[in-house]
Amino acid sequence: MKQAARLFKSLSEETRLRILLLLQGHGELCICDLMAALELPQSTISRHVAYLKNAGWLQDRRGGVWMYYSLVSDLPKPSADLLQVACALCAALAGAEQDRLRLHQYAAEKNCT
Questions:
Q1: Which of 81, 82, 85, 112 is the most exposed, having the fewest neighbouring CB atoms within 10 Å of its CB?
Q2: What pLDDT score was predicted for residue 112?
């Protein structure tokens, strides 16, 4: 029961939902990608990413000096279903589209340099 409560609690914060939505749509992102998309400082993003990782939503991978985060690939079916519902509810919101656009623009600029 505690694990279920922790999963629901992790979805109760807007920034964490925004992070999950971006990761669902883009697969793997680093903290700097999330900072650009969400327009939040590194400390805030890192805190929420750590919370999501501890709740069991995220996995990480080191690539050189960068840490890349993605959704856990083998989430249990109930958790995967919960994530799908949460992301579907949030995806249609105006703020979600703005986050996606900022991430797309940042990625384009990052690839040009």
A1: 112
A2: 65
Spacing of C-alpha 101 from chain mean position: 15
Q: What predicted TM-score, i.e. pTM, was given to this entire model?
A: 0.90
Report the percent of the chain where pLDDT is more than 70. 98
From 3, 4, 28, 7, select the one nearest 16 (Cα to Cα): 7
Question: Scanning the structure block, which residue is given the tokens 């990625």?
Answer: 107
Residues 96 and 18 sit within 8 Å (Cβ to Cβ) = yes
Show the tokens assigned to 37.
């998309």
List the domains of the chain with CATH numbers.
2-112 (1.10.10.10)
Q: Rounded distance, CA 34 to CA 42, Å?
A: 9
Q: Residue for token digits 């964490």?
A: 16
Contact 82, 7 (CB under 8 A): yes
Task: Give Cα 52 distance to the centre of its chain.
Answer: 8
- At residue 40, φ and ψ (nearest 5 deg) are -130, 155
Cα–Cα distance measured from residue 103 to residue 12, given in angstroms and rounded to the nearest whole number: 23
